[in-house]
UniProtKB/TrEMBL annotation:
Its cofactor is Mg(2+). This is Diacylglycerol kinase. Keywords: ATP-binding, Kinase, Lipid biosynthesis, Lipid metabolism, Nucleotide-binding, Phospholipid biosynthesis, Phospholipid metabolism, Transferase. The keyword RNA-binding does not apply.
């Protein structure tokens, strides 16, 4: 197998670089043949991954060294090529791909498992999410897409100049808490029409809707506790009209999946989903900004090939 690493030097506020520097000697000591690419800007990881997928004909592994944004780029570039398997060395702030696909949680273990699977040629098949929005006509997601309050907070935090500053002190997550509390009193929930496999559902003043391929998002929140990345289904979690104070309770219970018992939370399963908001609301795909407005999502069962998965 050809082995490539896609290193995002901006992930985890640059700590990804030191993580990679710890791993590199292990690779060299074992005489492993590999090629490492360093991204120089957002979007380049997708371009490089696509080029690798197009140019290689043999079984190929592309491992993201970063967080979910880096995995999102690699999967969007090369996730659909049948000869490419996607891996990840967790080196980001949010590592939901690693959680959802049962990869090792520490970088050294992840590398060891990746190399062992490369030697054995062991790759597992999972479902691949696809989506289309106004900003991204042909997108792919590994974890989840969604729209509403959560995407709004992510957008504000990512655009804030304070994120980088706080990240320097390892306090980047505080920016999300800050916007969560501030926007809780400002955000206006929006009416959503949701269609799942031809069935229509309408929500007045919904806070958010998330379409999940596996349980995790937002750095370990179990937004869709019962979905599996190989069950051929998407789970749609809708947070309907709810008092503002209760949203805070929801953000606490979501860490163990308890929110699905709230009467305002609805869960649907299906293969094709359309979300049509009455007013433009932000959309995220794997936590990355994906425009706003209407979004379509569907699943391609077994299409995503992943390497380094814990099987026991
Ligand atoms: N060289 C680069 N410079 C700046 N941004 C980059 C670069 N390469 C990739 N990116 C972008 O960096 C962002 C963050 O990457 P990633 O999610 O992997 O790390 P993270 O530490 O989990 O980040 P965050 O907490 O900001 O989501 C992604 O949007 C990705 O597209």
């Amino acid at each position: 197998m050809n082995l490539y690493f896609m290193i995002n030097p901006a992930a985890k506020n640059g700590r990804s670089v030191s993580i990679w520097k710890q791993l590199q000697p292990l690779l060299d000591r074992e005489g492993i043949a590999y090629q490492a690419y360093w991204t120089s800007r957002k979007g380049e990881g997708k371009e490089i991954a696509r080029r690798i997928g197009e140019e290689s004909v043999e079984p190929t592994v592309i491992a993201a060294v970063g967080g979910d944004g880096t995995v999102h780029e690699v999967v969007n570039g090369a996730g659909s090529f049948p000869h490419v398997a996607i891996g990840c060395i967790p080196a980001g702030t949010g590592n939901d791909f690693v959680r959802g696909f049962r990869l090792a949680r520490t970088s050294k273990q992840a590398l060891q498992r990746l190399l062992s699977d490369v030697r054995l040629g062991r790759v597992l098949s999972f479902d691949l999410g696809r989506f289309a929005s106004s900003a991204v006509p042909d997108g792919v997601f590994a974890n989840s897409i969604g729209c509403g309050f959560d995407a709004h907070i992510a957008r504000m935090a990512n655009r804030s100049k304070w994120k980088g500053r706080l990240n320097r002190f390892g306090l980047g997550s505080f920016i999300y808490v800050f916007y969560l509390v501030r926007e809780l009193f400002r955000y206006q929930p929006v009416d959503l029409d949701i269609c799942v496999d031809g069935q229509n559902y309408s929500f007045l003043k919904a806070w958010l809707a998330t379409v999940s391929n596996h349980p995790y998002y937002g750095g370990g929140m179990r937004i869709a506790p019962s979905v599996r990345a190989d069950d051929g289904l998407l789970h749609v979690t809708v947070v309907g009209p709810m008092p503002r104070w209760k949203i805070l309770a929801l953000f606490l219970t979501v860490f163990w999946g308890g929110h699905v018992r709230m009467k305002e939370v609805c869960v649907f399963t299906g293969r094709n989903v359309r979300i049509r908001p009455a007013a433009p609301v932000p959309i995220h795909a794997d936590g990355e900004d994906a425009g706003e407005g209407e979004v379509f999502a569907w699943i391609e069962p077994g299409r995503l090939r992943v390497i380094g998965v814990k099987t026991r």
